[in-house]
């Protein structure tokens, strides 16, 4: 059985944050943050990345 290690964070979005800036801060990717948080159109706007 493989061992799965993941780090998860609870982060409160601050004014001025973008998905991209959060991804950079936590060494993740925009796609991963969108997927994990179930952020899909029409909830998301590609202009906000």
TrEMBL record:
Species per Swiss-Prot/TrEMBL record: Mesobacillus maritimus
Protein name according to UniProt: LysM peptidoglycan-binding domain-containing protein
Residues that span the membrane, as ranges: none
Highest taxon above the source species: Bacteria
SUPFAM superfamilies referenced in this protein's UniProt entry, alphabetically: LysM domain
Pfam families, A to Z: LysM (PF01476)
Domain LysM: 9-49
């Amino acid at each position: 059985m493989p061992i799965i290690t993941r780090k998860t964070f609870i982060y409160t979005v601050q004014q001025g944050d973008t998905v991209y800036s959060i991804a950079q801060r936590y060494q993740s990717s925009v796609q991963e943050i969108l997927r994990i948080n179930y952020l899909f159109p029409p909830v998301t706007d590609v202009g906000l990345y």
